[in-house]
Amino acid sequence: MSVTVDLADIRLYRYSTHLEMGLNAIGLLAASGAGAAMVCTSSMFDRPLLTVVQPILTILFGDLTKDFVTLAHLILQARNGVPGAAEAIPATAASFRSNSARISLWLALIGVFFSFSIHQHIE
Q1: Domains in the chain: how many in total?
Q2: How far is 91 from 87, CA to CA, in rounded Å?
Q3: Which end of the chain is more exposed for a tag (fewer CB within 10 A), N or C?
């Protein structure tokens, strides 16, 4: 026998003070901003490096994961004898290699940009 309790999310905060609710709201906004833009700042820099690294990396790694899954799914289909799957492997593998090279280039460029930016700000 399972018992479910219907509890609204807002009732969880019924004993919170107004200060605590305000601090929770500030924390929520700060976490959302950090996750959305990932602004890189450091106290040793005279101005912040405004970059959007996290969303770019999420897109790049998402594309790479999609390509891995597509190629693996096609190989499994070919092993299971799905018609046309074996013939599509060379084109999919070529696309995978091309996309992997493109993503590697982007990652290298991002690394070079950050290395150069940090070096310029340190001097």
Answers
A1: 1
A2: 8
A3: N
Kind plus residue range of the DSSP H or E element containing 60: helix 53-79
Instruction: Give every CB contact of residue 42 below 8 A, 6+ residues apart in sequence.
Output: 48, 49
| Digit-coded pLDDT (tens) for 7-23 | 666 777 778 889 988 98
Contact in structure between 51 and 115 (CB atoms under 8 Å):
no
The count of other CB atoms within 10 Å of the CB of residue 47 is 7
0.70 surpassed by pTM: no
DSSP string, 64-88: HHHHHHHHHHHHHHHHTT-TTHHHH
Per-residue model confidence (pLDDT) at position 113: 77
Tokens representing 99? 């996309």
Give CA–CA dist 76/82, Å, rounded: 9
